[in-house]
Amino acid sequence: MRAPREIEELMWEVAEGGDQRTIDQFYARYPEFADELEKRMQMVKNLRGSRPRKDVPSFVPRQSVRTLGPSRLAVAAVSLLVLASVTYATFAAMQFVNSQKTVRVEQPPEIVFNPPKFVQEDPRVDTSSVVEEYSAFHGPAVDERPTVPDIFMGKVTLQAEDISLSEAIVSIATQAGIEASIAPGFEDKRIRISCVEQPALAVLQELGQRFGFTAFKQGTIQLLIVPARSGDEVDAAGVPVKSNVSTAVAGSENTKPKDDKEPDNEPPAN
Amino acid sequence: MSAVQETRRATDFDEDLVLVDRVVAGDEFAFQTLFHRYHDKVFAIARGVLLDTEEAADAVQEIFTLVYRNLRKFDKRSRFSTWLFRVAVNRSIQQARKRRYTKKDVPLEQAEEAAFEVEFTDPGDPEVETAMSQLHPADRALLTLFYWDELTLQDIGESLGCSSNAAKTRLFRARERFKQQYERTVVE
Fold this sequence. Notes:
The structure holds 2 protein chains of 2 kinds.
Chain A: H1 5-17, H2 20-29, H3 34-49, H4 72-99, H5 128-138, E1 155-164, H6 165-176, E2 179-182, E3 190-199, H7 200-211, E4 213-218, E5 222-227, E6 246-249
Parallel strand pairs in A: 2-5
Antiparallel strand pairs in A: 1-3, 3-6, 4-5
Helix pairs in contact in A: 1-3, 6-7
Chain B: H1 3-13, H2 16-24, H3 28-50, H4 53-69, H5 80-103, H6 108-114, H7 126-133, H8 137-148, H9 153-160, H10 164-187
Helix pairs in contact in B: 2-3, 3-4, 3-5, 3-8, 4-5, 5-9, 7-10, 8-10, 9-10
């Protein structure tokens, strides 16, 4: 029966100690290992009894001591030789392998990639020199873009003693090049008018204030004449704050300009 | 234990160091004292490893010669005896290995007979000698240091360059191998 390691170590210690009391205790505790302990005791006894004895001679130093192991020089030489052999063998093997190659692999053509250089130019252009040069020859730069003439500001002249309001509006518009349209419900009447070289739109607006209509610009050349509503009706004899147009209902006495600040027609006294 | 404490302990309690200093100073008689003091133990190591009395006696002379020549290199960080036993163990094991390689050169007919056999010029217990001859020289050195020189596990560890625990483990294995060989020898 194989004893556990702890028991084996204990048996060696008991056998080496040789104390009878300890031995008896071991027998009592581990009777199954009694034989093993006795074997070890005998073994230790024989081993110790085999200790060699020899008379002590005198010490005579040796002139030389044998070199049991290889000398360092020999080790270095052998190492160097082995290293050189391995190196040569590697070189020879590489040479052999290279010579056995039948397929020749050509090197692929070298491709040099030169990407085009895109330069982002500054969009801002310095025109100062150009402007200076232009100004030197042509004077200061002038904005020569075509401008659309405002036909509503065209000067018109109309002098009539007895003319219908619609005819006066059409005449003024025609002189200025305006396409005038008169909305339904327009109340026509006979008037007397006198204006010289006045803006067409201003004349029409003043007529509208006096005779109850509004002139609306429609685009660049059209004009819409819309009669005023009942609440907005202006008295036919109403005088504008400032007027360059002299108008009056035909047959009436009012021929003064508006800036006279006198009503053309006095309301009838009841 | 630190090296400083070890040195102090050795200085305080190892009177061998006084003799070592005297040897280094040129007193050859002091080395004779060391030789007589440790001859038996060194011889036991050499005999236990080499298993040959004459060869062991020759080895002892060489071991002490080596120690005598290299005594100036002894740094006194350990006891002189520990250093001496380490030299003895290493030298004996080297010599045992060299002899084993030499024995490989014998003719094939004699090889079986010569294998693991050593001529015992002064055999003690023949069964012990036979069992010892079957062991590795390092195992023989361990058993010799423990049973013949009666060193402690710590001294054995220092002599072999290992810890006391490692020495204990190695000693246990060496004893078990010896027991195995010894029992086999007894049965035969």
